[in-house]
Amino acid sequence: MADKIESLKDIKSAAAASSTAEVKVRKSVKDKQGRSYATGKRKDAVARVWIKPGKGNITINDKSIDEYFARPVLKMIIAQPFEVANRVNEFDVVCTVKGGGLSGQAGAIKHGISIALNEYEPELRSVLKKAGFLTRDDRVVERKKYGKAKARRSYQFSKR
């Protein structure tokens, strides 16, 4: 019995020593042009995002952010990852986005920018993760059921 306890202690100490010795260092992932790529998703929208060092220009489907998103709230959503990481006006963003509505597309771009920033500068991972930007928001519209007007709404009941 004592031998088993001693061997368990040895296994635990060896496991602790090996886990502390193997500290994984994340490396920056860039292509030949010095860009980082990521895919962001939100609802039915999918955004393909490339970031590279620049002056803070954001291009969406070959249009500027002011042309594509008229509402200031959507522009603010897209800028959030840069503000949290203290990298405002340091990166140019080029992205293509398809599907969904404008709100879903803005969320998809935000998700893509966050992942691309993480790929470009792995040190920012803890800041972006704490803000919740690296997690995909998996909420989608519930499907319509038969016998219902919408997903859950019933038809109006008439007694007479």
Can you describe this structure?
This protein has five helices and five strands; from the N terminus they run αββββααβαα. It has 160 residues and is α+β, with helices and mostly antiparallel strands. Helix 3 (72-84) packs parallel to helix 4 (102-120). The radius of gyration is 23 Å and the shape is elongated. It has helices at residues 2-21, 65-68, 72-84, 102-120, 125-131; strands at 36-42, 45-53, 58-60, 63-64, 91-98.
Characteristic key phrases:
160 residues; alpha+beta; five-stranded mixed beta sheet; 5 helices; 39% helix
How do you describe this structure in short?
The protein is α+β, with helices and mostly antiparallel strands.
Strand order across the largest sheet: 1-2-5-3-4
Shape: elongated
Poorly predicted regions: none
Number of strands: 5
Radius of gyration: 23 Å
Main beta sheet: 5 strands, mixed
* Rounded average pLDDT: 88
- Element order: H for helix, E for strand: HEEEEHHEHH
Task: Note the beta-strand portion.
Answer: 15-25%
Structural class: alpha+beta
Annotation field: number of helices: 5
Q: What is the CA-CA span between the terminal residues?
A: 81 Å
